[in-house]
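TICKET #2291
ISSUE: user wants both folds in one file
ATTACHMENT 1:
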Amino acid sequence: MQHQQQQTPPRMRQRRRSSGVTLTPGVLTTAISIGVVVLIVAITFVADWMRIPELSLSAQGQFVSPNGDGSYDIFTVSYRLADSARITARVYSDQNVVRTLANGQNESAGEHFLVWDGRNDVGAVAPDGFYRIEVVAAGTMRSTSQSAQAQLDTQPPTVQLANLPEGVSVNTPNLQIEGVTEPGAMISLNGTAQPQRVDNIGRFTFPFKLVDGANSIDLQAIDPAGNTTRLQRTIQLVTEPPDISITRPLENEWTNQQIVSIEGVTRPGATLTVNQQSVRVEADGSFRHELILDQGANALHFVATDEVGNIAVLDRVVHLKVGALPIQVNVQDGAVIGDANLQLTGKVEPGSLVTVNGMAVPVNAFGDFQTTTALNSGDNTITIEARDLAGNVTTLARRVTYQQGGGDSLERLSRNLENLPILILPSILAIGAILAFTYLRQNRVSLALSVDPPTFVPGLPGSEKNLVILLDLSKTARLSLEVLDQNGNLRASLVQNRRKIGRRHIFHWNGYDDRGMLLPAGDYTVRAEAGAPPLQVTSSVQVRLERPLQPQVQTPAYTGRTTVSNTRQDR
């Protein structure tokens, strides 16, 4: 071993002598350790410089509506950091900064959140629209960012209703509420627990049952941002027809004026006709209308229709009589009377008021009157005045002479007997005329006939395709209804001498004759006859019958007469 050390090369020995330092194993190990530490620190520093912070962001909801109603008043953004970082958060509208929520604040690793109240940096509420909330996490040299979109909506949804203004009145209880609002909104009616979502273009429909009188409708629409609109309506259900009150003329009033003034009151806002003439109705419902009368009985037919279509009908009769019948008495002009108490008898038109020398005299139902008139000695004038129901006045004067014991009783009796036929015959004629007039007036019936449509295309037997026949009957009477061809021949008998009450009747005819055969195309007459001789009245209307587009098989539709239906049961 010693021999080997002694054999060290001369060059090695020379190098050691020249350095003057001896490297022991411990020193070398320390140097290596320090070098490794320095290298690790350098690598760590560079890695920290080049690190990109890990950031994940999420938003709660989509809307912000800063109106203080507790719904979407703030917009919350949650984010998570894997390591600590400096956080900057801003709200942008396009590229413009609206609000700075955080500016380089240090945040540790973990969960964090930010809120935006919809306001800008000066505290004012930002305009409605879409905004971008961007969160930037910055490390030593590098950073990362994520963003969420928020829609700021402060405007409540508009609600529009179709055909439902405030205070509208209707006459049917089944109401369909229809309208439009903002798409995506929810709408409720009268505080229903389950709101209804509108369709994709914002339309909604609610069925609603009205009750008589005022009905309140309260609609509430809530848009996706929680903004609320409330719309209220009051709807009147009116099912009662309007009243018609006629103050003049009175029922069965008599007049001698050819123009009668009609006065009365009905429901404000209603339309009124009398004998199909339009009558002006004032704002308070009162009306006044003048109508020209015909001699005799005049039927006044009033029809009032309110704003919702309810109809009221009133009939009244007014009699026009121009001129009065003459007065008949049992004393001739210039007669000589031997009795101081004259027994005066006479006849006037029934219903008249009679005065004799200014004193009222009773008149019986046949127009007869009698009274005792005291005569003065010598010449006397007896003035008789009669005023009939229409107001016509007739005056008759008789000049008689009173002579005590004057005039032969037998002669006076003979003269009175001679006048008897003159008094009796007109009385009988007048009574007969009055009775006939009263009978005809009380039993008068009127009817009106119409069809819908005026041109009718029949269907197949049993298809229930019918012509609608409307018949208005003024009072209960015997009725016949039939269909005649152009030659006046009976083709279909719909009603045969049936008793019908006075009101509107609805009949149906299918276009077939009494044998169940389809009638040829052409013009036909639907004729109605009501009453009994001699008080029968008729009404007719034309209808055009056309062939169906498809050929019909001539097969009897039924056995017997043409089917007739009436919407109400006869009573």
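ATTACHMENT 2:
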Amino acid sequence: MVFKRISIRDHTAEANLFARRTLIALLVIATMIFILLSNLYYLQIERHEVYQTRSNGNRIKVLPVAPNRGLIYDRNGVVLAENRPVYSLQVIPEETDNLDNTLEELVTLLDITEEEVADFRKEFKSTRRFKPVTLRNQLNEQEVALFSANQHKFNGVSVEARLTRHYPYADSLTHMLGYVAKINKRDLQKLTEASLEDNYAATYDIGKLGIEKYHESLLHGQVGYQEVEVNSQGRVIRTLSFTPPVPGQDLVLNIDVNLQMIAQQALDGRRGAVVVMDSRDGGILSLYSNPSYDPNLFVNGISGKDYSALLQSKDRPLINRATQGQYPPASTIKPHMALLALDEEIIKPDSTIRDYGSFQLRNSSHKWRDWRPYGHRNKDDKNIINVTDAIEQSCDVFFYDAAYKLGIDRISDKMFEFGFGDYTGIDLYEESAAIMPSRGWKRANKNLPWYPGDTVIIGIGQSYWTTTPLQLAQSVATIANKGIRRVPQIIRGNMIEGRQLVFEPKELRPVEVKNPEHWDVVLDAMYGVVNREKGTALNVFKDANYISAGKTGTAQLFQIAQDEKYDKENVADRLRDNAMYVGYAPYDNPELVIAVALENAGSGAATPVARQVMDYYFRDKPTLIAQDKESTNLAAR
């Protein structure tokens, strides 16, 4: 039998081992506690403000508050653009249970159209899911009540109230006033580039056209903010602080809305434009282009069908004919040409030519015909015409000859001084410079030299020369003011705390002449157009209670062969002559300047339009007694 040896345990060694292990464990625990306390100190003390801010970010939100857009008034205090409350149906896609089912139920409940749903889906694709997307604008009271009764069924859907733009005069002011519409990607990009995106954080609309666009910075205002506390579901519990927005400035325009509507009425649906300007300060009293359209269609989003109709219309209603329409000025520029010819001593006040109805250059078989086949005659019934006769009767032959002797270089330089071929400076972005032709212009645009025949036809405002009605009005105001040029201005001033501040008129470089008496010769001839026996506008203005001066014009739109005559009845409607008229009144102390362009209306059609507008302007003014100008006629006869 074998016995194993039993060893006796070393209790001292075991106790030492236990003590060492306990110490190590305690050190580890102490180290971990130290690390935990250090981290708590770091989080609670050193990083307190950071995490407090983050905590508040989950509990507190800063919401932008849109400013009210400034109102727009006419010169008499009539509201032209106002803000009206509207209700819109908005959806936050992230908060809906099922977006497609929600849309289907809303379509059934509120008769939402397929186009509205399509627009919603299009916008939804470019918007973050937690941001609201408008499904329908301008809910009526019945629709608001119907949705409110069923709102518990639609998570993430709400009715939001806000102010939106409204234009009470609809199409009467569109091309001048413009409109606002929804901010799109292009607008947002421009705002970002200008570091203005924060100021539009709560704004839906922005000026797209006209005064609304040009003076956007004045009309918009400054965004406000409210700090609110929200719960875990994002609902607002209370408002902690509020910084009110600064409303946009109210603007006062030079426009007289009644005069504008008279201009619209006078055009009577015909294509064309009327510009009425105050010659004393450059203020635009009326600027109407026809055909027009209702800007309210664009405010809440125009339908694709309506927009296509505007784009495809052959009448081009989207074009502002007053500032963008380019028309041959025709005979309306004969006073300008006469002034230049007098100043360059090509003619004198008593210089005459014999008018037999056509003009011909040496060594040329081509004849430039006068609008009167057998020429013009003076008051003694002789075919001897001076500059006054030529303007009064609109003699083409006289100005063919004067233009040829002047040459295109002197003509283009002087007419550029009057503002032709350049922007007027009006407070609208929608403006054309039109064309004041020159040798360089023809070479650059036609790759052809300038011919003497080009100069001849320029003398009666035809050929390559085009102008806008606004340029014509500005140039005639310059003549009426004997060289003083002013910038046309639509805005008159702004309203601050109920006080109207009127902006100062802006002057441009004046048109200078060598002999100031030449102004009187030209102005007297324009008086004769309206008031003397052979004046082309006498029959229209002969019973007016004010004394005016002016110049008629007829612009031919295509060339007639040498052996042919213009036959209105056999010419297509849109190839018929344009009718033009420029004028001012009163003659001795100019206040009002007018320019009228009527497309394809035929000779003389623009003058009655000017008469209607001028009659309204002077309707409530004292009757002006016509004076006997014949005894002081400055042009020798």
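RESOLUTION: both attachments delivered.
EXTRA DETAIL ON ATTACHMENT 2: The longest helix spans residues 11-46.
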